[in-house]
Amino acid sequence: MNTISEAPAAVAIHEGPRDMTIKSLAIENPRWCPGCGDFGILMALKQFMVDKQLNPADTVHVSGIGCSGRTPNYIRSYGIHGIHGRAIPLATGLILTRPDLNIFIESGDGDSLSIGGNHLLHGINKNVNCVYLLFNNELYALTKSQSSPTTRKGHKTNTQPTGTYLDPINPLRFALGAGASFIANTADWMSDHLAATLQLAAAHPGFSFVHIFQRCPHFDPNAFQHKKADWMTFLTHENGVTPEKRLAEKAGVREHDHRDLNAAFDAAEHFKSWFGIIYQNPDKPRYDEILRAERDSTPPKPRSALLDKYLI
Ligand SMILES: Cc1ncc(C[n+]2csc(CCOP(=O)(O)OP(=O)(O)O)c2C)c(N)n1
Ligand code: SF4
Ligand SMILES: [Mg+2]
């Protein structure tokens, strides 16, 4: 096993035998609808593994439940298709005990911000080392179209058939408010932008929060005007992500310093249409590192002596 990263990164990058291809990472045909944005995200993940030649034996994809949650089923690596909203606690156990692994979390908007909201808050705050992908199709898809915290106001779903009552939660503002050390905004239909975002997210030491707009043509075919670019703005920076070539000509472009927290809060207000690296603070302490250092510096004690302390 050969570590090629110099600084500790969000995923500890390990080389396997350098013969991995997209094809060799396939396991079974995904059970997603034709045109589903999940295919684009899956391809970006596989492409990243191939580009870095990440050893599948050292890589774990962890998910909750949802159409998005099926992603680990379709990548030849270790994977946990876990419990709804509980991908982070599952992954945290691994991150704490196996810092040698490359750990990715795949989670839907419901999984992340409804049932799993509490875990997302603490995963971000603890800054445990992983790449977190939030697949935002703005509804619960697997359970056939209920409103989620990110459903746009007025959109009709099975749970709010006259139109969703509230404005959507802003996932970027949520992540910033929770103290995220890395936040990016991208979309499933921007393959190069998504791939470049994954590279930066993986190189970041800590919890890398990647928000991805994801098409669900089955339940909400008009959610995103993905063929047009005039509504999009790409955020650029010398250490950021290059605008998607296919869309750049018609989209807006803005210089954005993602080390500037105030500028990040401003950018987060435009989460529906501004794409790029929103924020990065590589110096935020990591709970997993702290805990391991604590463990390593504690002199071992016999367990029976520890338990005896609680005798009354
Ligand atoms: C504890 C628990 N509660 C509810 C469900 C039902 N359920 C399965 S997936 C899902 C929502 C999925 O939405 P999202 O996380 O946005 O993923 P998507 O299917 O849109 O990718 C719900 C409510 C469940 N499986 N487990
Ligand atoms: S229901 Fe939507 S999110 Fe689920 S597989 Fe079909 S298109 Fe994709
Ligand atoms: Mg969803």
List the helices and strands and how they pair.
Layout: E1 2-3, E2 14-15, H1 38-52, E3 59-63, E4 78-81, H2 87-97, E5 102-108, H3 109-113, H4 117-126, E6 130-136, H5 171-177, E7 182-187, H6 191-203, E8 207-213, E9 233-236, H7 245-248, E10 252-255, H8 261-268, E11 274-280, H9 287-297, H10 303-308
Parallel strand pairs: 3-4, 3-5, 5-6, 6-8, 7-8, 9-10, 9-11
Antiparallel strand pairs: 1-2, 7-11
Helix pairs in contact: 1-6, 2-9, 5-8
Bound molecules: thiamine diphosphate (TPP), iron/sulfur cluster and magnesium ion.
The site of thiamine diphosphate has 17 residues, from helix 3.
Placed side by side, the strands forming the largest sheet appear as 4-3-5-6-8-7-11-9-10
Mean pLDDT: 94
Number of strands: 11
Q: What summary fits the major beta sheet?
A: 9 strands, mixed
N-to-C terminal Cα separation, in Å?
50 Å
Under CATH, the topology is which?
A: Rossmann fold
Percentage beta strand: 15-25%
Return Rg in Å. 20 Å
Q: Class by helix and strand content?
A: alpha/beta
CATH H-level superfamily title: Thiamin diphosphate (ThDP)-binding fold, Pyr/PP domains
- Uncertain segments: 1-7
Sequence of secondary-structure elements: EEHEEHEHHEHEHEEHEHEHH
Total domain count: 1
Please identify, by name, the CATH architecture.
Answer: 3-Layer(aba) Sandwich
Helix content: 25-40%
**CATH class type:** Alpha Beta
Number of helices: 10
Please give a handful of descriptors for the protein shown.
binds thiamine diphosphate, binds iron/sulfur cluster, 312 residues, 10 helices, Rossmann fold, nine-stranded mixed beta sheet, 29% helix, single chain, binds magnesium ion, two-stranded antiparallel ribbon, alpha/beta, disordered N terminus, globular
